């Protein structure tokens, strides 16, 4: 496993000098307890700026890390650091980053990502302005277990493309012109998860879809998405309802979201329908049909894993559908969130 304390300062006279001129590009990095991954992220960003010779700034917004992430960020001379002191999530952090940014071209990445310097030359012109309205690229996932042991790597298949492709959602890695970000009001602060999906769908509805370029934009160091603890944590903390029923309800008249609901969440639709039929018919057969079809669907999804942990995945899936039904009926989070943060000044 990679290990880096991030205590070394990266100093470059050309980079420091460029800060005297208003930046054309603002890199907005968010993080919480990123550990050894944050110095990799910040080093790669500084390297990319120097390689492209652009006028740029780096903004890091920390969501109350309990490790040394904030000190690591402060050790980089070029980085402007901000600490969220109130309610935090990724949407709030990114909105703060944009508010404090000076550039008209915004590049977002998470603190566990390493940006590919070569990718910037594909999306920026000679003046450091974005060639595209809303753009991202492929990224390589490096998966780890909860103890930080490396498991495997592969491209993120859900969004992977072997040629430049128009898509309607993004993750935490993308570039956008400030004018388009502001045209939809940025991210919705209420989203604890799935805020990037919501942003992408709202932009697509305005006629600004994402261009996914075939080249690799970054490496992403993350816990395995199918890790048991990660799957169950998203249920118990309630975050998994945001990219599902909260997203669907907020964008009910958005054709791109309706398509996602039909293709990505068929068991939730089946569950809601089965509950209604069971109540109308006063029998459990529709619910039994839901359980059977869901069991077959999970088995099909796990066909390449020799069904390891099958019952755990099935139970998790059914419980998610149940929680989302309750959220659909009773949970209506407000977007009026008090945003509290402060600038953290670097001391030499």
From TrEMBL:
GO terms for cellular component: plasma membrane. It is found in: Cell membrane. Pfam families: Glycos_transf_2 (PF00535). It comes from the Bacteria. Keywords: Cell membrane, Glycosyltransferase, Membrane, Transferase, Transmembrane, Transmembrane helix. GO terms for molecular function: glycosyltransferase activity. Its main location: membrane. The chain crosses the membrane at residues 279-302. Residues 26-179 form the Glycosyltransferase 2-like domain. PANTHER family: GLYCOSYLTRANSFERASE, GLYCOSYLTRANSFERASE 2-LIKE DOMAIN-CONTAINING PROTEIN. This is Glycosyltransferase, GT2 family. The lineage of its organism: Bacteria, Pseudomonadati, Bacteroidota, Bacteroidia, Marinilabiliales.
């Amino acid at each position: 496993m990679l290990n880096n304390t991030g205590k070394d300062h990266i100093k470059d006279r050309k980079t420091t000098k460029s800060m005297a001129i208003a930046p054309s590009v603002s890199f907005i990095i968010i993080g919480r307890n990123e550990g050894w991954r944050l110095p990799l992220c910040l080093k790669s960003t500084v390297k990319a700026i120097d390689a492209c010779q652009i006028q740029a700034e780096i903004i890091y917004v920390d969501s109350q890390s309990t490790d040394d992430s904030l000190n690591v960020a402060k050790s980089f001379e070029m980085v402007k650091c901000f600490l969220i002191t109130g309610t935090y999530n990724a949407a709030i952090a990114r909105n703060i980053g944009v508010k404090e940014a000076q550039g008209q071209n915004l590049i977002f990445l998470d603190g566990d990502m390493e940006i590919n310097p070569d990718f910037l030359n594909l999306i920026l012109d000679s003046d450091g302005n974005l060639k595209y309205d809303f753009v991202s690229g492929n990224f390589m996932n490096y998966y780890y277990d909860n103890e930080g042991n490396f498991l495997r790597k592969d491209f993120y298949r859900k969004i992977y493309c072997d040629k430049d492709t128009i898509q309607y959602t993004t993750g935490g890695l993308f570039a956008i012109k400030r004018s388009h970000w502001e045209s939809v009001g940025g991210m919705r602060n209420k989203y604890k998860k799935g805020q990037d999906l919501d942003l992408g769908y709202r932009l697509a509805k305005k006629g600004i879809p994402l261009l996914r370029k075939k080249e690799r934009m970054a490496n992403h160091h993350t816990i395995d998405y199918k890790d048991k603890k990660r799957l169950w944590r998203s249920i118990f903390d309630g975050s998994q309802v945001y990219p599902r029923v909260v997203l669907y309800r907020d964008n009910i008249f958005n054709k791109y979201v309706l398509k996602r609901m039909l293709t990505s969440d068929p068991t939730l639709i089946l569950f809601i329908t089965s509950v209604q039929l069971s109540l109308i018919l006063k029998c459990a057969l529709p619910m039994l049909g839901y359980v059977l079809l869901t069991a077959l669907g999970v088995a099909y999804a796990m066909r390449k894993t020799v069904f390891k942990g099958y019952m755990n995945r099935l139970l998790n899936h059914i419980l998610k559908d149940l929680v989302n039904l309750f959220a659909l009926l009773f949970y209506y989070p407000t977007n009026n969130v008090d945003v509290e943060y402060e600038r953290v000044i670097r001391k030499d």
